[in-house]
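Standup notes, protein team

Yesterday: finished cleaning the Pseudomonas batumici set.
Today: Threonine synthase structure.
Blockers: none.

Input for Threonine synthase:
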Amino acid sequence: MQTHLAWHGRCARHRSILRLLMRTTSFSPPESPGIAREGTAVAVNFSRAPSRVQMAVLRDGERVSQIMKYVSTRTPGKEFEFSEVLMGAYAPDGGLFVPHKVPRFKKEDLLKLEWLPFNELARHVIEPFMGNYIPQDELSRMLEETFERFKSKAVAPLYQTASNEWVLELFHGPAGVYQDFGLQLMSRLVEYTLTKSGKRALVIGCTGGDTGAAAIKAFNGMDGVTVIVLHPSKGTTEEHRRRLLSTAEGNIVNISVEGDYSDCHRLCEKILRGRNETGQQLISFNSINWVRVLAHLAFYFYSALQLGAPKREIAFSVPTGNFGALYSGYMAREMGLPIRQLIVATNANAGLHKFLQSNFYSRTEICSTKTPSMNVSLASNFERLQWSILNRCGDKVARNMELLEGDGQIQLERDEWLEARKLFDSLAVEDAETFRSIHEVFVQNGYLISPNTAIGLRAARVSRRSLLIPMICLATTHPATAASVLAEADVPCPIKGASAQPLSNDLCISIPNDVGILMEVIKDISKDTMSRSR
């Protein structure tokens, strides 16, 4: 099975050896009993970075940090503070928040980050986007606490599956999904803000299973916060349902909505864009919240630097539904990370893939797949992508989104669409191919991957442009989150899945697909939590 090789590089000799090895086309660890040449995870985690790194100051990033503001994708005239972006969802005009400037790291800046432990690297990458919101030492403490909860000391170790092909394990957080990166940090930032203001918040979002599980792990038992998790009655597997209902404390409310994920998303959207009648702050835990996108930057920088950036280019394949993790990759490239290729890997609900292939983006009926957390018709972060490729023209973005919300379809101008084609490659992967990918990797490497990861790996192998450039596939979910699917893929699955978890008696409300009923339920929840807090 999986073999981890941890280099602790505390002397110059070890660091030199590692640097040389990581820049070879195919990583081959030195001969050692019990360590195979292939299928080796590289967990670089330096408990103490060199003093020259500790003293490094990213001056360009710090200047941007002092003046960082945010604007809406639809009417970019008004500016917002980071705290407003964190403690909300949509901009007042219904758009999404984006930074008015993107801090850019020079090559020498990136080299200074090369040997930092994950939490310190994350601080350098994230801090420029926060303005004067939080003292540096407080942010460092939060990040250290965030990643202490991850089971791997490296936080996001790399595992080699083939020559110049790597899996980035993003599933070592509390919920076993990549969303842990954003939501663990977000929960601490929300708690920090509420402690200063003395207010309460309702954190609301929709999920196919993974994001909701991560939100519950992040906010579970937190004072001043009630989390409302909407999941669809159709398409939510029993494993995902158990993950949502088995660990929740009193501040978590699960609501089952009649319909599919798109129905849940539309209800959430109407609640968060409408008038707030709850008496509490309404915060989204989905990736429309910029902090989710921001936190993911860290694992792009960390993995790319381990495999030779900024001295060599890197490619990424990203299994996606709402385009959140992919937009983080796009932002990392805009910030100076030498990313040669970004691959959009979708399941059969291939809205993003179809757009990139045909310049036709539309709302379609969701079909059932073995990767329900990726069953998305319209990606939430597509609006942010439009903002980028439409030269930050808020009027165009607003017009397109109005058409999409009304007619359910849009087309971009040809030159705009070609710009998107330059930025991304894509592939839609059917369930049968997903099964083959899981089986193939296990036979070749003795390594289990989840269905989501299998989609990313399949897309990487079909769509990569160069075999000479390291390809990193994001492993967004732990195999145990889909143990029943692995059994169908004809691979042994010694890990216990969510089906082994007992269901608790915590509240789960079932409602029809009706925004009025949902609003009444939310107001009742708000009144109840407000009365109990007095």
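Follow-up from PR in the comments: Residues 1-63 have pLDDT under 50 and may be disordered.
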